[in-house]
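[Discussion] Sanity-checking designs against the backbone

I'm trying to build intuition for which residues belong where. Below is a structure token string of 352 positions. I'd appreciate it if someone posts a full sequence so I can compare it with mine line by line.
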């Protein structure tokens, strides 16, 4: 039997891994799931395993917080003996976090085949630690599973053409699989007294905003002055840095589970975020998005004005909120909802 060791550690990776984990089981591949503990808050970790029906991890490394060097080093130290013990046919990593980099480096140095889900993304902003994680994972990988044609093209520009597969986006798979369940189970709209398309949804967690006080203050001021109801689930790192908020229209709440977040995204009038995953989910659901960064690795979402880069600029945020939503539906850029099945089949065919 083919054995895959999957490394996850952060909220977006749980979402990406859920449909892949199911697809691996469906084709008879054994999966050893390792949780690094990069996201350790219950609202950022435990709830996703239960809601997404992800099997309990083989082990949780409980690495927790720390500097990038400390976090990555601790993960590598813990991952090495596990990989040696399990001797998988391949190691599977997701996205662009420190968990991605640690899993990729240990697998490559031990000589295990490495597969990278969400390969080929580039923001071209070298001040972002995620950019280095993506590049190093891609250049270490034997199998590169790309979500879009643009990702394939970017890899080719870097000389990577062997082992590259255009499969689609596993987050799109998850959104299709769980959005109906969210409508059935989530009561978040009633709990917060919301009606569809009568509120904005905001998320902020990137160092570009959280580690620059004037950027975070500018965003909070724009949200406070926009004249609309704003729901703001606050990431733990943002909670430590956010300035005092006295605006009655701005409602700060705890981080949400996946189903609640999906329902809030689907029914928002507009979404403001610095998260790559939330940008995509807005695009999936045809909800206008303002990205609170000067660039995005998901350039496909910028097509036809569905996503607009506003950075942390107070005036630009307010001005863009007054722009009418695009007409029609976003182009189907991220596949057909079967990326996970393609990944599982490639792994089975090549490793069996």
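Best answer:
Here's mine. Compare freely.
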């Amino acid at each position: 039997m083919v054995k895959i060791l999957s490394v996850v550690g952060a909220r977006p990776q749980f979402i990406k891994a859920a449909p892949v984990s199911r697809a691996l089981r469906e084709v008879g591949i054994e999966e050893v799931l390792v949780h690094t503990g990069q996201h350790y808050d219950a609202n950022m970790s435990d709830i996703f395993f239960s809601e997404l029906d992800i099997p309990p991890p083989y082990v949780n490394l409980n690495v927790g917080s720390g500097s990038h060097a400390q976090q990555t080093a601790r993960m590598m130290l813990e991952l090495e003996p596990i990989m040696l013990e399990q001797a998988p046919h391949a190691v599977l990593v997701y996205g662009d976090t420190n968990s991605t980099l640690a899993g990729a480096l240990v697998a490559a140095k031990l000589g295990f085949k490495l597969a990278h889900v969400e390969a080929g993304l580039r923001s071209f902003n070298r001040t972002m630690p995620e950019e280095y994680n993506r590049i190093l994972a891609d250049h270490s990988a034997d199998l590169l599973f790309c979500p879009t044609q643009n990702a394939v093209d970017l890899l080719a520009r870097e000389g990577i053409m062997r082992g590259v597969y255009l499969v689609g986006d596993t987050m799109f798979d998850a959104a299709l699989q769980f959005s109906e369940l969210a409508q059935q189970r989530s009561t978040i709209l009633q709990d917060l007294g919301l009606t569809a398309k009568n509120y904005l949804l905001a998320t902020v967690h990137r160092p570009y905003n959280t580690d620059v006080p004037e950027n975070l203050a500018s965003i909070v001021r724009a949200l406070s002055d926009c004249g609309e109801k704003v729901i703001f689930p606050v990431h733990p790192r943002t909670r430590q840095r956010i300035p005092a908020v006295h605006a009655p229209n701005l409602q700060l709440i705890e981080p949400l589970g996946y189903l609640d977040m999906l329902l809030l995204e689907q029914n928002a009038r507009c979404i403001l975020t610095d998260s790559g995953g939330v940008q995509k989910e807005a695009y999936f659901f045809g909800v206008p998005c303002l990205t609170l960064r000067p660039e995005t690795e998901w350039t496909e979402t910028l097509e036809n004005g569905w996503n607009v880069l506003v950075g942390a600029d107070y005036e630009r945020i307010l001005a863009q909120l007054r722009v009418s939503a695009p007409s029609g539906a976003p182009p189907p850029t991220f596949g057909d909802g079967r990326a996970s099945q393609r990944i599982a089949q490639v792994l089975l065919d090549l490793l069996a």
